[in-house]
Specification:
The chain is an alpha/beta fold. Helices cover about 40% and strands about 20% of the residues. The strands form 3 sheets. The chain has a 5-stranded mixed β-sheet with strand order 3-2-1-4-5, with helices on both faces. The longest helix is centred in the C-terminal third of the chain and has 33 residues, at about 245-275. It binds 5'-O-[(R)-(carboxyoxy)(hydroxy)phosphoryl]adenosine and zinc ion.
Length: about 375
Amino acid sequence: MPLAATDQPRQSNVAPALVLGIESSCDETAAAVLCADRGLLSNIVASQDEAHRPYGGVVPEIAARAHMSRIDTVIDRAVTDAGIAYDDLSAVAATSGPGLIGGVITGLMAAKGLSSSLGVPLVAVNHLEGHALSPRLTEDCPFPYLLLLVSGGHSQLLSVTGLGDYERLGSTIDDAAGEAFDKTAKVMGLGFPGGPNVERWAELGDPQAIPLPRPLLDRDSCDFSFAGLKTAVTRAFAASDRSDIAKADLAASFQRAVADCLADRTERAMARFKADHDGPHRFVVAGGVAANRTLRERLVRTAERMGFTPIFPPLQFCGDNAAMIARAGLERLQAGSSDPLSAPARPRWPLDTEAAHAAPASGSGRKGPKS
Ligand code: KG4
Ligand code: ZN
């Protein structure tokens, strides 16, 4: 149920002055302190890239162990850097899904321990809600807006109408966009995480050199599909001479194909969003893949053509971080909502109410369903 379809949330009895946010749903162990009046006071992200690099992707067991060994230190740093004491905290917000269950449990248990010992409310945050509200950390970004969320675990187009009020316009039916970048890099041996490496090689290549499919572009929906693209890249690389020129051309051609798919689906979603909402129209791009310059330029052009103002949150708030979890927690508290200590860790947790009640329509991936 939407909590409030307005930018003026009702005040709760709790004064949520200082919220500790905790994020641990994939391969970043993160904590942040957000002040209702003074903004973000600290933002700590401990990346696990080194631990997963030898495997070319995130290994759930390694991720869970890394979260367990770091979570206390990361939280402590966030509190210290904020210049506060634990007793000053007025609430703790933690990602409680969707994500890799070992990591989610680690962060959520830490949050429950703190909430219980400090006697402050717990907010069990949907990780996707954190991404959805991330532009509101730094921008005047009132509801409603269209959100393209593209990360290693998710690819979705969402209409964000209010706190707790999300309509999914489209999502991937198989791999997430970032996952496709990571797999493409793995096939060509370009290193992990794949996105930045594919982007670097793509700068040297010809985006028209290798013909690759644009899955689902003929469909009247806003859904994505990237699995076929990955297979096509694997075949094209196997058939190539594996030279540096071949790698650069394939990276550039792959990146162009992803850009074509994202821009086409986004344009459809924009048309739907405009039919439902009066202007001004805002378009937010969040998630780690939003770092890609070619994709950004392409999406800015799409937004301008469709009459949307493009908004790209700073990169530190695009990839997984705890500041966005603290923000979602703060907004929930301000709307009078918190959670019991029995709040479960949820490997799957669609953001939109409709999908939450429907059978999962999509395949599963490293962070659960892509829907
Ligand atoms: O949001 P994020 O940090 O974590 C997840 O929720 O997954 O996103 C990580 C994903 C990875 O798949 C990574 O390869 C991709 O974002 N990524 C990029 C770029 N930088 C990171 N993809 C394309 N181009 C980039 N420059
Ligand atoms: Zn994420």
